[in-house]
Amino acid sequence: QVQLLESGGGLSQPGGSLRLFCDASGFTFSNACMGWFRQAPGKEREAVANIDSIGRITYASSVKGRFTVSRDNTLNILYLQMNSLKSEDTAMYYCAADLDGSGRCEEFSYWGQGMQVTVSS
């Protein structure tokens, strides 16, 4: 029953902002580590940000200071606020969940379908 559904992606000008959403269902959201990943054409998958069950957050150096990950454990939604967007942020973005029960971010075994983010003038 685990389901992760992304929304909020699309096209932005450089310097613009987008807010991504991941609507989660089928598991105890508050006990899970949640993360955002991205993959650009010709590049390896990159961990963008994650937030564990306690609220500890890790960011990729490439997005630190520009992106903010957060979660609403009442609504079962994971967010990624993306500001000061650059062309290098263009990628397919994925929501992922680690459901091993530890609450820590160790292995992401469930993934959303992916959502395109394009930053271009």
Beta-strand segment tally: 11
Gyration radius from CA atoms, angstroms: 13 Å
What's the N-to-C terminus distance? 40 Å
Number of helices: 0
**N-to-C SSE string, H for helix and E for strand:** EEEEEEEEEEE
Shape: globular
Summarize model confidence as the mean pLDDT. Answer: 97
**Beta-strand residue fraction:** over 45%
How many strands, what sense, and barrel or not for the largest sheet? 7 strands, mixed
Helix residue percentage: under 10%
Q: Unreliable runs, pLDDT <50, ≥5 residues?
A: none
SS-based class: mainly beta
Can you offer a commentary on this structure?
0% of the residues lie in helices and 49% in strands. It has strands at 3-7, 10-12, 18-25, 33-39, 46-51, 57-59, 67-72, 77-82, 91-98, 110-111, 115-119. The strands form two sheets. Strands 2, 4, 5, 6, 9, 10 and 11 form a seven-stranded mixed sheet that branches. A hairpin with a 5-residue loop joins strand 5 and strand 6. The chain starts with a strand and ends with a strand.
